[in-house]
Amino acid sequence: YGGKRFFGWATFGSGVVTLLIPSAAQISYTALIAIRVLLGMLQGVTWPAMFVIWSRWAPPLERQKLISLNFSGSTLGIILTYPTVNILCTIVENGWKYAFYLSGGVTIMWCLLWYYFVYETPSQHPRITKLEKMYIRNCLKKHLPPEE
Questions:
Q1: What is the C-alpha to C-alpha distance for residues 28 and 92, in angstroms, rounded to an integer?
Q2: Quick one: which of 14, 33, 116, 136 has the fewest CB in 10 Å?
Q3: Is 107 exposed, middle or buried (0-12, 13-18, 19+ CB in 10 A)?
Q4: What angle do CA 37, 73, 119 make, to 5 degrees?
Q5: Is residue 146 part of a domain?
Q6: How far apart are CA 48 and CA 50, in angstroms?
Q7: Residue 105 forms part of a structural domain
Q8: Is 63 inside any structural domain?
Q9: Is it the case that residue 146 has pLDDT exceeding 90?
Q10: Does residue 145 lie within any of the structural domains?
Q11: Burial code of 5-32, b = ≥16 C-beta within 10 A, e = fewer?
Q12: Residue 141 carries which DSSP code?
């Protein structure tokens, strides 16, 4: 199993579990804590999985810039989520629930795009050119197994 699958399934699972948070909160504190622990476990594998993906895609001289850009997406998500949640909680009765529904739903939709656009290795990707594949392979040949 490669980074794409681990990251994709963990992120998809996080979206599904996020949708369950309002129900868990209404059931009991214990249910909410259990859901949050599960969410943490799912999200815990995403960062290492991303490093696996970048190790197969990012040439060493470009890796730092690409990884920084990639992980800044988490910060951007937070920046966009806080005002959105504030608006939901202000204008919708029980808006706090919809904050989780929106977040979980967007995460699940994002996963569909992820599975379409992301490939485990450059050699598997049908939409990049041979020249791009050669460039990546040549930059990473010391770091990858021969079949990649």
A1: 23
A2: 116
A3: buried
A4: 90
A5: no
A6: 5
A7: yes
A8: yes
A9: no
A10: no
A11: ebbbbbbbbbbbbbbbbbebbeeeeeeb
A12: T
- Write out pLDDT tens, residues 109-119: 999 999 999 99
Our count of domains for the chain comes to: 1
CA nearest to 109, candidates 36, 4, 11, 40: 11
**Model pTM score:** 0.88
- CA atoms lying within 13 Å on the CB side of residue 46: 17
Quick: pLDDT tens for 12-62: 999 999 999 999 999 999 999 999 999 999 999 999 999 999 999 999 999
Could you tell me the two tokens for 141? 């040949």
H-helix segments, the chain: 3-27, 29-44, 46-57, 60-91, 95-117, 130-140
Biggest distance spanned by C-alpha atoms of the chain: 58
- Domain membership of residue 105 as a residue range: 3-140
Distance from C-alpha of 13 to C-alpha of 107, rounded to nearest angstrom:
9
